[in-house]
């Protein structure tokens, strides 16, 4: 079977470039406009993407002055999009630090049922004190503790999703028996962070449970991904770094006793597409010209855990930045930014320009052929199973990718030309439906005793 | 302006009668079938109902043997229904005991935005140890504590919904200023049950916040309703009881300094409709014949806080039941059931038959004219501002009400004949849009100094 690219559309209000909302074409209210997202979802479906995805954090950034802030709650928005689409997977970010397993497991099961098996969960632990203070805490929990809680959260969620066997409903009207109580398995979980006694109040969903997605690239994050994730979003700046990450994650997954084909690695790319290279560069420059650098400096200072005023716009990063191990927030993103600035000897102003597009994700700027070439290189050279497509401006950047890059990928045999029959999200990603932990699996194929009969 | 009935469609899988799922027409998988609910919602919209409503509790009842158990999570299902309807309000039940204010406030704001101002929140405190044990507690919190937490929860939620002024988004592309930070008001709430620091990450929604609905009729429940609720669901067995409840709640509301017209009282009714009275009675009997009495006894024993085996099917209720004040669960429902059994001298078997339709809500059995007469009597005699319609069987019971009772109510001038222009749910219920607590209200109409000029 031909290996195909897996494409995910990472949707974000007016686009991933921080200045995108200032362009004449952009709707500054797009972040709360269902019609905007319906249009994007249908465009991604026209491009036969595997899935679309919404990032999230349960807090408002400190200033709304800079750019569109806030967003519709992802599970709510994806439920609405489920009714407006037919094939595309729907991946919502949700935090293990600021949800309870019972409520969240139920919401994902409900979305999976309503969408006919198209739900995915981007599992995040949520860095930052702002979020913590919205949930009764004074400061953010330590990185390792957030991951310990995430592991237990997922364990409980899996118990809840498996608390109904697939055939627990017998619906015997004549006997007056609706369900088989022997096929209901209450978790009776008592752990460090959670106690959850009873079975979920939703039957097992089409996929069993949502596709498990993960996006942390720290040590804790990679360990978690190797154990649990079925798709991984990652930020990589060079094909060499991406290959190293890919090989590392696949081998970690194998060491956890899992099939390395059952974890799909999707680096993020910001495709800035133009009909000529010059046109693409001009578009990139137009976006960069709209960056408000004072905002960018403040944002970078927060990301690097520096005091306000610590950075000089026209100087390089200071030499005495702390190591990643001292960072409790978004560890791997921290390292990526520092390495990018040092490798390319960027001033703070230049760094802000480079980060403006994708916050650390790679920007590909060029013609459709050049973008398709880059995608093909990464895909065929062991750096990616597919891509997390992060258009700099929405909707136009997704239109450009689907109308001009997708046909090239199809012509090269790298991407499906149509969806074919309805599939679950897990089937689109080439993954098996998970067995229920309470149901012994049948051997896939018993050895045939044919030779004895010859 | 003519006073019109407010109708709410209380949707529940195959219907409100506990045996409804056993009828030949019923789909035992209806509880997780979006198409079933879309059909019901569109039928209610054909009947120009104000709203539809989903009950909920975050637990699975102990046995799935008896009847369809579990449900799609209400906010998820209502989001999907928002995209399939245009006018009808969408009221979700959600618990103040087992949610966090930040997450829940955001979900309701998102639904309100996606639906164009049609969201409502049925505020419940969630009785029962089963739910408590799914959220890390050993036993259910005491009734009074649940209500204290509910009051603080609502206070925080209102602060979150008001944390953006309506005109906080300025969208000045030229200046690069998206929002006005002076119009963002972080709650900075530190209370007994919750600490919530930051502003919501969704702008203020079309209604400001969802319609606030309440359904507890205990002392704590009525006090909460008088202070906060804009619509109240209640179970009343006689017009006299309903009138007393109505008068009491309106006067409590006035004593809280609120306009008593701004709380709408909607008793629940289970309309068993037939083209003749005999046909309606036969339908009721068919349903009663499908009740499995052993299940009914067990359920009644739980409701009355009795040991298993305490009730005798063919005897009346025991004399020595505890008073309502000793009940920590659903207090007012307890009293209603005991009073019903004693007033009508019912055996346990007869009581189970009477409760089978609406779990304590009044069953009206008769022709469309008889049902319309009863509705009109309650509505015009100070017992109701409208009704919570609880069809015994779905979809057929809602079809019968909309096709045969609704035209009579319209002909009598009691119900709107069409929706007219799009309105928010609060406008449908004749309620004003709530002001933002951070914005001083302008005087409605300044006294005109006209006489001085004469």
UniProtKB/TrEMBL annotation, chains A, B:
Stretches for region Disordered: 432-454
The keyword Secreted is annotated on this UniProt entry: no
Coiled-coil zones: none
Domain Luciferase-like: residue ranges: 28-383
KW Flavoprotein (keyword) present: yes
Keywords: Flavoprotein, FMN, Monooxygenase, Oxidoreductase
Annotated Pfam families: Bac_luciferase
NCBIfam families in UniProt: FMN_nitrolo (TIGR03860)
Family to which this protein belongs: Belongs to the NtaA/SnaA/DszA monooxygenase family.
PANTHER family noted in UniProt: ALKANESULFONATE MONOOXYGENASE-RELATED (PTHR30011), C2H2 FINGER DOMAIN TRANSCRIPTION FACTOR (EUROFUNG)-RELATED (PTHR30011:SF16)
Entry protein name: LLM class flavin-dependent oxidoreductase
Annotated organism of origin: Streptomyces siamensis
